[in-house]
Amino acid sequence: MAPALLEDVGQIAMRAKDLPRATAFYRDTLGLTLALEAPNLTFFQVGTIMIMLSPPESAEFDHAGSVLYFRTADITAAYAALAGRGVAFRGEPHVVHRAGEKALWMAFFDDSEGNVLALMQWR
Predict the structure, then answer these.
(1) Stated pTM of the model
(2) Mean pLDDT of the chain
């Protein structure tokens, strides 16, 4: 078997129509670690993955991004803390899948730019 060419996800780009607003949301509301800023770019380090916020370079990229799923050790506490910071959730944490004794819980919300994000926890 040949070695894997792709090892893991290194970066995810998210559309930001208003970069200062998006930066404030990810930094201040979600509490992510700001890694660096450059003209028209903001980068956040989340574990081993970098999230890049930038305005769309062309009409082809001017759409909401893929859903980002943030793992959390306590979805109930994370939900309460983020709701307290003004995050408007689409619903409360709920089970989306069961696998034997475990259940996958999720809670979905929008960022300041209309991208869908989610909290996730296996219990």
Answers:
(1) 0.87
(2) 93
